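DM between two lab members

TW: hey, do you still have the DNA replication and repair protein RecF entry open?
JB: yeah, one sec
JB: this one, 387 aa:
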Amino acid sequence: MIVEHLSLVDFRNYAAADVALGAGPNVFVGRNGQGKTNLAEAIAFFATLGSHRVSADAPMVRDGAEFAIVRARLGHGERRVLLEAQVNRQGSNKARVNGAAVKTAELPRYAAVVLFAPEDLQIVRGDPSARRRFADQLLIQRSPRMSAVLADYDRVLKQRTALLKSARARGIRGEALSTLEVWDDKLVDLGTQVIRARLALADELSAPLAHAYTAIAGADHRPEAQWVLSVGGADAEDGDDSTAQTTDAATADIAGLFRAALAARRGAELERGLTLVGPHRDDLLLRVRGLPVKGYASHGESWSVALALRLASAELLRADSPLGDPILILDDVFAELDADRRQRLAGLAADYEQVIVTAAVEADVPEALRAQVVRVEAGRILEQTDA
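TW: and the structure you got?
JB:
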């Protein structure tokens, strides 16, 4: 699958823009702050329904406008599909597929995109929420139904936590809060689905993660990704990641562990007014050389792990999708890599049906990825040239 044409109206710093893209490598070149990443962000929006840089939609709308329009024509063999998203400064976004209105949540069914950006360093160095977000976005891309499961879990979590806070304020303790059991059942049901899906994902990522890391770094540092589960007794949100749960997702009684952990933490939950057990308290522990990446890995190792996670994601999507390869986007990556890793990454990326690269300096991008160059300045497309 490739993006053949991208059109923007009032998106970020673009009043209007039209860009034709081809199969193989495409490079957006321009000085920092000119709008290169905005083009990449617009393409990725169809797959993730959000930005990799900000959590809200409003910053994606050009100053002075109430909404932005992003259109992309995608091609897969003889098939063409036109996707359109209206990103609103306030309120719900809107979407169309081939001119027909659809729910915005339907867009990722048509677009498989994997984007790596400098912000991804937070996946390996940031707090647990960054790693949960990475895993959950990949789960949704591979199985769109997980979007509803995760949304339902968040809704139940908020309602259960509100009940705990109310009970704490009123001084209610222990068995007096009988209504909590209803929310426990819902939390366990939905949370178990999330935990099982995440554990299975970590298992499936294992081989492509190791392959991608070795290919990028030129060394086998034994990269690992393993979930630390609050239902198993750990609590990464409180800084306790000493107990990594390695139970097989297919055979473990996750629901039983979940209920037992809720019972064990009931007193603490009522005291703090928080839900202390569930996938919202879990962490994806990343290791190289047997040590946690966070706190032990060098800058180069951290970059290699973050990049390998995205490339491993692309491999899983490639294996899953009837649409062919995902679109691979490498945003401002090559400036951070030494010459050897640049060439290694270029070799891996060149295997994908379409690769989109952004760079401030064209020479930073290996020649093999400079088949088509698009020059960008101050929210304008200056020229497009074939190498």
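TW: got it. The chain has ten helices and 15 strands. The first strand starts at residue 2 and ends at 11.
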